[in-house]
From TrEMBL:
Pfam families: Rad9
Database matches in Gene3D superfamilies: 3.70.10.10
Any coiled-coil regions, as ranges: none
The gene coding this protein: RAD9B
Xref: PANTHER family: CELL CYCLE CHECKPOINT CONTROL PROTEIN RAD9B (PTHR15237:SF2), DNA REPAIR PROTEIN RAD9 (PTHR15237)
Protein name: Uncharacterized protein
Organism encoding this protein: Ornithorhynchus anatinus
GO cellular component, one term: checkpoint clamp complex
InterPro entries in UniProt: DNA_clamp_sf (IPR046938), Rad9/Ddc1 (IPR007268)
One GO term (biological process): DNA damage checkpoint signaling
Length: 120
């Protein structure tokens, strides 16, 4: 596992200590993960610049359109739905070759796709 995937997993773990939910905030400058606790007394933001990723796009191409349109959306995710993906960083380090994160416009979903070593 590259240091970037492990660092991303550690960021998810850190946000889980703050709140039960977090915001995924893509922009041209990079990807921000933000979290605030229920009493609004603690706030955390982890920012990943585009160079952190092998490939980063903060734009989308709608159907029937030929040019990129910037995304200006923030996605609220439950930490309990994302944390199991990054639960054991050591297991991920041994078995996962790459992780792809994308937003499915059709289903209004954020997808974390893990590609395991040896095609498994």
């Amino acid at each position: 596992m590259s240091p970037s995937r492990k660092l991303f997993g550690r960021a998810i773990h850190a946000l889980a200590r703050i709140s039960d939910e977090f915001w995924l905030d893509p922009s041209e400058k990079g990807l921000a993960l933000r979290s605030m606790n229920s009493s609004r007394s603690a706030y955390a933001c982890v920012f990943f610049p585009p160079i952190f990723f092998q490939m980063y796009h903060s734009t989308t191409i709608p159907e029937g359109c030929e040019k990129y349109i910037p995304l200006h959306l923030k996605y609220k995710l439950g930490i309990k739905s994302v944390l199991p993906i990054f639960r054991s960083l050591n297991t991920l380090e041994r078995n996962v070759e790459k992780c792809s994160i994308f937003i499915s416009d059709n289903n209004c979903r954020v997808v974390f796709q893990l590609f395991c070593k040896h095609g498994m």
